[in-house]
């Protein structure tokens, strides 16, 4: 019985952490290029409704994922035009994108609120899925869960083992120096912003097509903000992003298991539902007490506009 409970909790933790991994890794690449985009909540919401609508009309969840990717990237490019080309304040532009995206998703998704998609069957990996306790939890998952693991390794390799990743990090550290030696800083930042938006859109698509195959207004429920906090929590390191995503995913599902088990507790259910967000605040406060921890890996030009000399 305890083994079944452990497997169920681990399974739910991995699923809950997947949209955070997808979104946070995209934001990590985005911020490594020196661009701070606070619009993850809006990009996830637009990606979620675009994916649901496309999957509903086409009957293909993968076309839905593609639509979510494109919608998230398109939203990010709007931010990129404001923040990179027009040199608007990145914080204000990102907040505007978040608010606009959530509102746009609610408006577009109104006709789809009473609809549901067929559940997408998980992919069970033979042999390793038979490992006791861990097998069913880790290797009987949706395809996007495995894709999030592949994305982690791809981002890790790109940032620390490829020349393109080195150039991107150089742009995030000193765009003037990168421009001086011939790198297209503006193009690199646009590509990084588009990638961050695309991954946020895929994270939203996972929610509306795979996690809960239906559209409900507000279904992103603050995950975009948690993903943003994860990047800081991880001090811009991919491995810490992944571990942090599963940590927050575990906090999210723990309150569901506590409520589902009918345990007698002295706290109201609303307090349990707020635990993931309280944990986010606590972690950020703890990190902020030591500024050196944040400066350790933070790109030096993060949030600072740059215009190449004519």
TrEMBL record:
GO terms for molecular function: transmembrane transporter activity. It is found in: Cell membrane. It is a multi-pass membrane protein. Keywords: Cell membrane, Membrane, Transmembrane, Transmembrane helix. InterPro entries: ABC_transp_permease (IPR001851). CDD domains: TM_PBP1_transp_TpRbsC_like. It comes from the Bacteria. The chain crosses the membrane at residues 6-28, 35-56, 62-84, 91-109, 143-160, 190-212, 218-236, 243-265, 271-288. One of its GO terms (cellular component) is plasma membrane. Its main location: membrane. Pfam families: BPD_transp_2 (PF02653). This is Nucleoside ABC transporter membrane protein.
